[in-house]
């Protein structure tokens, strides 16, 4: 019986190390893809209010590639955090992570639909306008419609994503498996992401994407730190 229990414990430990390793890899891969997507699109430079200028800007960027990278990055984050959440040892922390799963899946589903619609619709429309297949007036009307549909979905997905990650940050902080500095970095970044997104969705005075960006950046660094921590823990477990 003791040998059987030892074998089961060894198999369980191997499975846990595998989960932690791949959760870390996916967290880092998702972060890299998200950063690449943002660098390719550079949304802060979009000439808002100038519809034809927006089309010209989109046509000059690899818009479809950037959108696809963004969707893949978010899918990596879903797999990483659901796996990391289930690997938490403390029962209450694990329960909080389970609650965050639903919110994260809904947020990323909205994010994927938003990025796919924005990337494909805006990208194709910009190509058709640049090639002369569609007149400028018609293109200007169409891009306004696309921006209106994308805008609301984008803000909602950002808000829910911030909420889901804030719950994961809380669970990881409570578990004690991550450094306090990294844990509090996650709480501040993700909570600011959620509150900033909520203010944008509710159209509160003074709310803007510029106020949201520092928190998103801090949360992104936190995700990268979580990924590195998970890989290091899996490696230490293997050596042990």
UniProtKB/TrEMBL annotation:
InterPro entries: DUF4386
Protein name listed in UniProt: DUF4386 domain-containing protein
Domain of life: Bacteria
Source species: Phytoactinopolyspora halophila
Keywords: Membrane, Transmembrane, Transmembrane helix
Residues that span the membrane, as ranges: 21-40, 63-84, 96-116, 149-170, 182-205, 211-231
């Amino acid at each position: 019986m003791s040998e059987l229990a030892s074998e089961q414990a060894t198999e369980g430990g191997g499975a846990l190390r595998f989960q932690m390793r791949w959760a870390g890899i996916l967290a880092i891969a998702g972060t890299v893809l998200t950063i690449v997507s943002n660098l390719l699109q550079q949304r802060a430079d979009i000439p808002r209010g100038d519809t034809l200028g927006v089309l010209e800007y989109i046509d000059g960027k690899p818009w479809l590639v950037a959108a696809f990278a963004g969707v893949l990055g978010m899918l990596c984050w879903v797999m990483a955090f659901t796996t990391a959440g289930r690997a938490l040892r403390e029962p209450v922390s694990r329960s909080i992570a389970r609650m965050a799963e639903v919110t994260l899946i809904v947020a990323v589903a909205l994010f994927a639909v938003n990025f796919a619609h924005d990337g494909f619709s805006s990208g194709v429309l910009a190509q058709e306008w640049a090639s002369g297949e569609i007149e400028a007036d018609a293109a200007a009307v169409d891009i306004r419609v696309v921006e209106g549909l994308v805008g609301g979905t984008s803000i909602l997905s950002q808000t829910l994503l911030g909420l889901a990650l804030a719950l994961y940050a809380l669970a990881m902080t409570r578990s004690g498996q991550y450094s306090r500095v990294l844990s509090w970095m996650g709480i501040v970044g993700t909570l600011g992401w959620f509150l900033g997104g909520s203010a944008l969705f509710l159209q509160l005075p003074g709310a803007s994407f510029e106020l949201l960006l520092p928190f998103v950046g801090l949360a992104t660094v936190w995700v990268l730190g979580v990924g590195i921590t998970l890989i290091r823990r899996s490696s230490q477990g293997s050596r042990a």
